[in-house]
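Troubleshooting entry. Yesterday's outputs looked truncated, so today I'm pasting the complete records for two proteins to confirm everything comes through intact. If either block looks cut off, that's the bug. Protein one:
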Amino acid sequence: MNDFESQSYSDGELIFSIGDLAENLYFIEKGSVELINSQGIAFASATEGQSFGEAAILQGGVRSAGARARGSVDCRRISAADASELLLSHSPLLVVILEALLLQQSMKNALRHP
């Protein structure tokens, strides 16, 4: 994890918005992050040891939710290219499986939070 860029966010800071290109995914080292819908209402959260922004792994991924820091947040920012390289180094099949799961999740989120 130390190979990836550290990023800090303050309480209420927007990390990314709906519709943004998904260029990075994030691993939380300290704090928590709210996932928000188009009205800015939190519908899920991620805490220390969890990741968010996995749409970055999808080719041409676009954010289907926003992310906002809840309190002080420290995380590692992992570029889409680095994430894909990491997955491919283990097995090309992982990328296909993960893409399918992420597409399913994205569709479910769109149905629950239009």
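Protein two, checking that the full record survives here as well:
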Amino acid sequence: MIVIGELLLVVCSISYLVWWTVVFRPSSRPSISSGPFLAGAVLGGLGGVVLLAVGSVLLLPRASALALGTTVVGGVALGAVLVWLTTTLAHRSLTTELPLIVVWTTAQVLAGVALATSGVLSTPTTAVWLGLTAVALLVGLACYLVFYRLGAATAYRVGMVPLAVDGVVAAVLAAVLVLARAR
């Protein structure tokens, strides 16, 4: 279930990238309908996050309920802190991208913690899982913070970076899990 969730997150990223390219390309009018791509991004993202969460919960009781609960609470706390930091200290208006970054990160950490505490992932593999998730989080936050300070063409390109990184990370995590299960 977690592998399918990761693959749906890849679909989400690809769909979102195509939608972004069609809708936000500077000095260009969309030549095709962007609706199906936005639908693919929304459905892929929702499906992926739900499957990561359900797959993580299904690993109970082998997985640590305390660790999973702490991860969810930590995700909510991280979101609250990031909203506060970005809106007050960074003077960045809140947009949907920040909650999406936090939900994606929390779902990835939840899956990694569930897989680790249930014995599916080894400690080094868990470190890779969490490290890749942290890289995607930091890239997403950096792009989020600078986006509105850039010119149109640069902002357009920078807006695609987190989408591509998240898709690559989700694909790598799916592969990591398949390889870990094959051993």
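Both blocks look complete. Sanity check on protein two: The chain has a mean pLDDT of 93.
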